Amino acid sequence: MPNKEHWQHQLESIHTIKAAGLKHWEPIHSGSSNYIFKVTTSAGLWIVRFNRAAMGISRQEEHRILEKIKPLDIGPNVIENDPDAGHLITEYIDQPTWQRSDLKNHDKLNQLKQAMNKYHAIDYEYLPSRLDHRLRLYLKNIKKIPERTTIDILENIQKLDFLGFWRANNSLYHSDLNLGNLLGDDSLRIIDWEFAGQGHPLLDWLILEHEVKMNLSDHFPDDVLPVWIAPARRLIRAIMKLWPHESP
Questions:
Q1: Beta carbons of 112 and 188 less than 8 angstroms apart
Q2: CATH class held by domain 100-245
Q3: 212: Cβ–Cβ under 8 A, 6 or more apart, which residues?
Q4: What is the spatial distance between Cα 231 and Cα 72, in angstroms, rounded to a whole number?
């Protein structure tokens, strides 16, 4: 990672930060492949993300998605998003991340379902972001994927295609719905939309289900065909085996 002087210069070179009055900054080590900082300005606390290139991510599409969810009041409050300059500035959310126990709380689970229903209701089309297309890109470019993982992914993509699942992928989905991206006790905020794209609500539920090791099938959307569930679950399990090998 570049040194402190480099990041001081980078932060000061952003007009919005300079105009707000930069006071203090510190890196946030969140496990992201981006460079992320908590920045104190005279205008308040902000999160500043300097983008790094990542397979399957379009920063222009992320910008489009953040604009689409803005009226829903469920995402981060964006101060400035400049994909061309390579940075995203949002308000700092001084709220705890969710815990597994929160999904056992009826009121909080209801809050999550309502938020998910809002963005799942958005029609969205950007085929490169659809999971089957994105996975084929990964399989082509990521090195040293175990053969069994590749077979599992391709078999379940094909099975879901035969069952008509991919044709039903026409709404916005988050694609990285885990507890670390759910913030707040009274007012839920869902963060980290860089992998969001064209999908089906079932995928978000299955990703969350896999992450927390809970069966959430009672909350699956009404339009889910029962025959989709098993191959989609297998696909999510196989996907999670990609990440230790994700460097191309």
A1: yes
A2: alpha beta
A3: 100, 103, 178, 179
A4: 32
- Selecting from 3.40.190.170, 3.30.200.20, 3.30.565.10, 3.30.43.10, what CATH number does the domain 4-91 have? 3.30.200.20
Percentage of the chain exceeding pLDDT 70: 96
In the chain, where the domains are located: 4-91, 100-245
Whole-angstrom distance, CA of residue 32 vs CA of residue 29: 7
- What distance in Å separates the CA atoms of residue 135 and residue 115, rounded to the nearest whole number? 26
**pLDDT confidence of residue 245:** 52
Does this chain's domain 4-91 share its CATH topology with 100-245? Answer: no
Q: Which residues of the chain have pLDDT under 50?
A: 247-248
DSSP 8-state assignment for residue 220: S
